[in-house]
Design a protein that fits this description.
The chain is built from 3 helices and 5 strands; from the N terminus they run αααβββββ. With 161 residues, the protein is an alpha+beta fold. Strands 1, 2, 3, 4 and 5 form a 5-stranded mixed sheet that branches. Helix 2 crosses helix 3.
Length: 161
C-alpha cells in the first residue's frame, strides 16, 4: 500500500487536464462578458452618433421637424415624427423588432415661468410666451448574450428658432 501511494503522489499526468477543467469555464464567462459589454458599448455609441446627427439637423433646419426627420433618414437612420405625450421618454419606448435603431422628432414648447421650465405639446402649455423646441429621442435594441434584448434610450430637447 505504501508503494502505491508514493507512486500516485508523483504521478502528474492528469494535472493539466484538471487545471483546464477548472479554469476554462472562468475564461469562457470572462470572454462572453467582454463581448456582451462590447455590444452594449457599440450600441450606445451608435445611438449617441444618431443623436449628434439629429441635433445637427435641428441646428441647420430650425423648427422644421419633418426636415430634421428627413435629415436623419438621409444620413442612414430611421426617423419619424411623433406627437408629444407625458410618457414619451426613451425608457418608456423600445425599438420595434424590425428596426434596431429608431429615432423620433417631436415638436414641443417650453415655458419659463415662475423660475421653472415646463415642456409640453405645442399650443397646450397655456404659456404667455412659449418658446419652440424639438425633442429628439432615440431607442436602440441590442441582443446580448447574457440579458437577451436590451433597450437603450437617449433624448435631448433642442431650442429652435
Amino acid at each position: 500500500m505504501n508503494i502505491r501511494s508514493k507512486r500516485f503522489g508523483r504521478n502528474e499526468s492528469g494535472i493539466a487536464a484538471l487545471e483546464f477543467a477548472i479554469l476554462a469555464p472562468l475564461f469562457a464567462i470572462a470572454a462572453i462578458g467582454t463581448a456582451d459589454y462590447a455590444l452594449r458599448f457599440e450600441a450606445q455609441a451608435s445611438l449617441d452618433d444618431a443623436l449628434r446627427v439629429a441635433v445637427e439637423g435641428a441646428i441647420r433646419l430650425g423648427d422644421d421637424a419633418e426636415g430634421v426627420a428627413e435629415f436623419l433618414n438621409q444620413n442612414g437612420y430611421s426617423a419619424s415624427i411623433t406627437t408629444f405625450s407625458s410618457d414619451d421618454s426613451p425608457e418608456a419606448k423600445s425599438a420595434s423588432e424590425s428596426e434596431v435603431l429608431q429615432f423620433e422628432v417631436q415638436r414641443t414648447e417650453a415655458c419659463f415661468e415662475a423660475g421653472s421650465m415646463q415642456v409640453g405639446r405645442r399650443g397646450a402649455s397655456g404659456c404667455a410666451q412659449p418658446e419652440p423646441w424639438l425633442r429628439l429621442s432615440g431607442s436602440y435594441r441590442v441582443d446580448t448574450f447574457t440579458a437577451g434584448a436590451v433597450d437603450l434610450g437617449a433624448q435631448i430637447d433642442v431650442k429652435v428658432q
